[in-house]
Design goal:
The protein is α/β, with parallel strands linked by helices. The chain has 13 helices and 11 strands. The strands form 2 sheets. It has a 9-stranded mixed beta sheet with strand order 1-11-2-3-10-9-8-5-6, sandwiched between helices. The protein has a two-stranded antiparallel ribbon with strand order 4-7. Helix 10 runs antiparallel to helix 12 and helix 12 packs antiparallel against helix 13.
Length: 389
């Protein structure tokens, strides 16, 4: 592989890493802001989210705060405060009866469920309702009222001098026995009209309820017409701590439900890895795999390159060349024959005792100053004559 090809491959790898890092940073910024999640979600850090309340409760240490990404109907939840924020007010008339029954079941299990609706800033335009046709006197038909969640019907505050459009609305406390502020400020013009019995109005505007409470068994259900009370913006600009404390109740476990907003937990290997904190390990394994592939495609020490300037080091890597390199490094050239003779005397001691000529030849070779190669060949030839090899 040419040097130009290697440079192109290395440049491509660097560009790929930079592109991956940029994409990760982009997704990190989006998830950090949380604007991809619905309004009211505790995963949003912008003004419409409730992350500030979640983190504030988490740092108090007195309560256990958690997010829920699964259906609460399939879980056994007791003695908890469940926050269902960011609901649409039209769900009062379109809510599924099964969903209402599930909420009532959670309340009956001893939980405090808070259902807050997204604020309605302006009064929606009301389309004229066509006049009903006169009923046939012979076959009278009873007009059935539309089903609503818990019998609650939605209304809207009209624009007036006391409640101008797109301005904060003041609601008054209707239950003096509660340790709450006599007046709160709301952004929503939505009102909640309860049935005659079963509900008590906590706050109202001109006699129209905006905060309702109902007890079912050992639990309680609270409806709030304005979920902006829980928002990050409200906690910064207009924090109403007494009301929030009353809404959260005395439970030591608070659940921010994300499932009803469409944020659900997806199963799979990555979900398990994220739950058990294995993402860094997976990243390290991927990096090692990338380095292995790179090493296999572009060797760090190409074949044929001389790794050292030492002439004693060869490019082959077999055992014989290693022994030659070791001898060249350890024994000077003028002492090589002497060392060989000394080793011969140690290894063939009995043979030398029986052969005086060979013994004399080894002794002369250790002190001779002539050509060591000639001496070595003479000793080898003499020993070959003695042994017949």
């Amino acid at each position: 592989m040419s040097a130009r090809s290697k440079l192109l491959i290395l440049t491509f790898c660097l560009l790929l890493v930079l592109a991956a890092a940029s994409l990760y940073q982009l997704f990190a910024l989006r998830f950090e802001a949380g604007d991809i999640f619905p309004a009211g979600s505790s995963l949003r850090s912008d003004p419409l989210g409730s992350m500030a309340l979640y983190q504030a409760l988490e740092r108090t240490g007195g309560v256990k705060v958690e997010r829920n990404y699964r259906s609460l109907a399939n879980q056994k939840v007791t003695a908890s405060t469940i926050l269902l924020l960011g609901n649409q007010h039209h769900e009062l008339t379109t809510a599924d009866k099964q969903e209402i029954a599930e909420v009532d079941q959670l309340v009956a299990a001893g939980n405090r469920v808070v259902v807050a609706f997204n604020p309605v800033i302006t009064v929606p335009e009301c389309r004229p309702v066509p006049a009903p046709k006169p009923a046939d006197a012979k076959t009278p038909k009873a007009v059935k009222a539309p089903d609503t969640a818990w019998g609650i019907s939605a209304g809207y505050l009209p624009v007036s001098e006391s409640a101008p459009d797109k301005q904060l609305i003041k609601a008054n406390l209707t239950e003096p026995g509660l340790a709450l502020s006599a007046e709160i400020r709301l952004l929503s013009r939505l009102t909640l009209q309860p049935p005659p019995t079963g509900w008590r109005t906590i706050y109202a505007v001109d006699g129209k309820a905006v905060v309702l409470e109902r007890s079912i068994g050992s639990g309680s259900l609270v409806l709030v017409s304005d979920s902006s009370l829980f928002s990050n913006e409200a906690l910064k600009a207009d924090r109403q701590a007494a009301l929030l404390a009353w809404l959260l109740g005395e439970q030591h476990r608070i659940i921010f439900d994300e499932f009803h907003l469409g944020v659900s937990e997806q199963g799979g290997i990555m979900a398990l890895a994220r739950r058990f904190g294995l993402l860094p390990l997976i990243g390290v394994l991927l990096m090692m795999a990338g380095l292995y592939i790179w090493q296999q495609s572009i060797p760090l020490n190409p074949a044929g390159a001389v790794a050292s300037r030492d002439p004693a080091v060869g490019v082959s890597h077999d055992s014989f060349s290693g022994l030659v390199n070791l001898l060249q490094r350890s024994i000077p050239a003028n002492q090589l024959l002497k060392v060989c003779c000394q080793e011969w005397q140690k290894s063939f001691k009995r043979e030398l005792q029986q052969d005086a000529e060979l013994r004399k030849e080894l002794s002369d070779a250790m002190t001779a100053q002539d050509d060591p190669v000639t001496r070595y060949q003479r000793i080898a030839r003499l020993r070959a004559e003695r042994t017949g090899r």
